[in-house]
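$ run holo --ligand "uridine-diphosphate-N-acetylglucosamine" --emit tokens
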Amino acid sequence: MRIVSVVGARPQFVKLAPIAGAVAAAGHEHVIVHTGQHYDRDLSEVFFSGLGIPEPDEHLAVGSGGHGVQTAAMLAGLEPVLERYRPDWVLVYGDTNSTIAGALCAVKLHLPVAHLEAGLRSFNRRMPEEHNRVLTDHASDLLLAPTPQAVAHLEHEGLGGRTVLVGDVMADACLRARETGRAAGGGAAFAGIEVPGPYLLATIHRAENTDDPERLSAIVDALADLPMPVVLLAHPRLRAKAEEHGIDLVRGALRPSTPLPYAQMIAALDGAAGVVTDSGGLQKEAYLLSRPCTTVRTETEWPETLVDGWNVLTEPAAADFAALATRPAPAVPVGTPFGDGRTAERVISELAGRVR
Ligand code: UD1
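-- output --
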């Protein structure tokens, strides 16, 4: 079996790592196509080297741009590549512009396409990620769903016949990275974070939080006012928007840092008292590692994390923002809604069993 993986943005490299391992272990052929959506070393190369992913076979070097320009450049770049390899499966990951471009290009070439992390919904039609998810699911031949909730969303949209519940490949990656970090001494030291005592780990990068200066300012103010150091792993979009609007990231509780490689990021989370974020992946990683998470959004694609108060959705203007962000871990232990950490193997056997 020949699989072409189309990836381009940081969270996709994390999902690719266990898949690449499982494809190699099963002796199949794997072609990795990097669209170039993320091009900063911190967001791209360090993930390939740090997670032991083979170098991409093809790199489209698409770079930044408006949604139309970026997605169109990916489509134009992908078509000759997919035609050349004509794989048994095109595998697309998550919800970025690279995901929709990979799915659309494959469909137009009549190549079978599978969507990993299918069926997630925020029901917020203003998020670019929501358009990408819904359209990719409806275009794909096989929907690899991470949770029963995701399966229910797909069934509701008439896609149950193409859906299979496999678990969440992010659990594979996260639990493995925790072991790597702990074996190397773990925690803040391994992550290179110099904060005495308890700290919170924070990331903010979504367009709906960064692109309106008033909202971004309110979020940064709320973080800076917290009564505990806040290690802010600043995505390039956050840095660019803060600079553009004159919002200072070096004040109060804030300790801005460059984004971390994956194992260091998981170690930083393992050593943190809690998390404040708008990232989908980090909400789930906080849950997997039993760290209370405060999500600066009005909805989440991962409602499983809300159970028993492990994750809480809030707004920067909320009167109890500081109390929520610094709350202790709930007494009730986390569940296992994201599978057993062996999802990648299941994905590969599902694909192999369906080669036409
Ligand atoms: C993208 C995904 C989002 C995912 C996130 C993870 C889409 C629509 N969004 O958001 O779902 O959660 O990746 O990080 O696909 N930039 C750089 N260097 C880089 C990459 C981006 O400077 O390596 C800056 C550029 O100014 C760019 C901006 O960040 O214009 C936004 O990048 P983009 O690729 O559009 O989306 P992300 O915000 O990274």
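-- notes --
The CA atoms of residues 294 and 325 lie 6 Å apart.
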